[in-house]
Amino acid sequence: MLNFLIVEDNFLIAIDLEAQLLEMGHGVIGIATTAPAAIAMAGGAKPDMAIIDLQLAEGTRGQDAAIALWQDFGIPSIIVSGSLHQISDAEETAIHPLAMLSKPLLPDELRRVIDIADLATSPKPD
Amino acid sequence: MDHYDGLNPGIFFDSAATAQLVFTPDLRIVAANKRYCALLGRQPRDLIGYKVFEAFPANPDDPEASAEAELTASIEAVVATGKEQQMPLRQHDVREADGRYATRYWRVRNSPIFADEARPDKVTHIIQTAEDVTRNTLGERADAARQRAAMRGAELSYFELDPVSGHLIQSPQLDALFGFDPEDTYDAVEPFLDRFHPDDRAEARAEIERVARTIGADLHLNSRIILPDGTMRWVLGRGESVRDPDTQTVRIVGIVLDVTAIHENEARLSEALAARDLMIAEVNHRVKNSLQMVTSILNLEGSATVDPAARASLRAATARVNAVAAIHASLYEDEDVSSVWIDRYLKRLTTHLRLSLASDARGLQITYDAESIRLDTDRAVSLSLAVNELVTNSFKHAYGPEDDGTVTITLRRADENMILLEVADDGTGPGADRASSDAKSSGLGQRLIAGMAASLGGTIEEDQTNGWRTRILFPE
Questions:
Q1: What is the helix (H) or strand (E) element at residue B199, kind and residue range?
Q2: CB A56 within 8 A of CB A33
Q3: What CATH number does domain B155-258 carry, 3.40.50.720, 3.30.450.20, 2.70.40.10, 3.20.20.60?
Q4: Structural domain boundaries in chain B
Q5: Residues 272 to 301 of B: which have CB under 8 A from any A CB?
Q6: What's the predicted TM-score (pTM) here?
Q7: Candidates B296, B345, B362, partner chain A, best to mutate (most A CBs within 10 A)
């Protein structure tokens, strides 16, 4: 089981992501709608992974949250956005994302990347 | 000397191809050859014994006529030096038989004759060779006049630059273009170069130097200039380097145009294009977000529903929304948003179907084989929904829980601008005989397939040998 931070300013999408994660048996430490809120919540609760949208509330950017989470706390992100092209190459390098998924998400798409990331980050002994 | 024994030497004089006139140092005519008489329209008797300017008086209407003084000076030089003298090209009009004067231009050489055997150094006569260059000269003048008229007409900023001395000859329009008062016009290039934008000045100098190095090189300047009031203008300079035929010095001759308006339009156009691209990206983002919201709502409804049949319905609805949404992922990949590459799109749809139907878990394969065909977006959406329903049906009915199998999606061009879509399975499961089960269990699915085929303007054909095979043939 992994603990997630959801960074998404659209309430419906956020609670859908939450429901999907809970159904997979994971935990959700909270939903942030701005980049500063995401950084503050991640710093406090130290989730295992974050799911991050790019265009956030109050004109803040998911890239900034994702960079801070990875660089300051070592928390990797899965980017979920309708405009992935907004991430520059430099940002992608700095974010080091587990995956970049285009909205709308396909069924089970999220589960797949989380399972792959989970295996990669915590390999199980034979 | 023997060769022309018996011949009158005068025959050579008369046969010469150039007009020749012989006179004494005091300009009294002693002989004129045939060519000369023909060229001037005179008989020898009209000339011989007369002074040159009695025979050819100056045109009283040409106040600048000074041929007499020039000829006298030339003859004095011939007598003094004993050497041939070339006179500068000049106009001397000739009075015709009817008393009118005709404009004539002459190139004249005066050569000495030494006829006094006792004093071989003494110039006794002058033989003058006269060439009528009226046609050439008037032609050149006409060209120059035409050029001047063209310049005035086009309001051109014309210039002639001596790249070595920096000396500049320019039309008043150039002064005006660079913001110089016509009162204090400069005849040097430096004040003009000083008005170039500091970032463009070095480039302009380098370009002038480059053109000066090669005669005939084309000048290309596209620079900003700053006027005294601080406004910036864009100027376009075009010209070439030539060698001045008289002085042999290099000149750069050209024009300068004000192209500020063109530059401003270009800037406005690229701003508008950037704004359009931004707007398309924004709309694209919103569409994808909205579709995500729709699938999120359906997901949440599904999670909250306990009834398995209702849950299945919501899952089917999610799959249908995804079939439409997948088209949007294929859109905006290139400039054209009115159509998509249907083969690329089918790849994405296949991925979506594998995930939503959990094909791996069931031991089932979905393969696709598509020709590269571009289809307009509306028809691609119809095709997408039809494929979604057909593949879903195969999964639902063709295979038992333990069966392996493959569903194949094929899209190819058929005859006469028709496109053939085929979805085929190799299932023999409990629902393989679908005639009975479909009507009940997948009424909406069947209606969607029929509706989408109709919207494609296509026909449906079904075949039940070796699994289930549905073909939709529609015009391209």
A1: helix B198-213
A2: yes
A3: 3.30.450.20
A4: 2-136, 155-258, 265-475
A5: 281, 284-289, 291-297, 299-300
A6: 0.53
A7: B296
pLDDT tens string B135-170:
777 667 766 766 666 665 556 788 889 988 888 888
Distance CA B27, CA B50 (A): 8
Output the CATH code of domain B2-136. 3.30.450.20
**Is CATH 3.30.390.10 correct for B265-475?**
no
Q: Which two tokens stand for residue A79?
A: 């980017």
Q: What is the DSSP string of B313-363?
A: HHHHHHHHHHHHHHHHHHTTSSS--SEEEHHHHHHHHHHHHHHHTTHHHHT
Nearest CA to A46 among A28, A7, A73? A73
Q: pLDDT by residue (tens digit) across B349-379?
A: 888 888 777 777 788 889 989 888 888 888 8
Residue type at B277 in one-letter notation: D
What ipTM does the predicted assembly reach? 0.83
- DSSP annotation string for B79-115: HHH-S-EEPPPEE--EE-TTS-EE--EEEEEEEEE--
Q: How far is B315 from chain A (nearest CA, A)?
A: 9
Report the top-level CATH class of A3-119. alpha beta
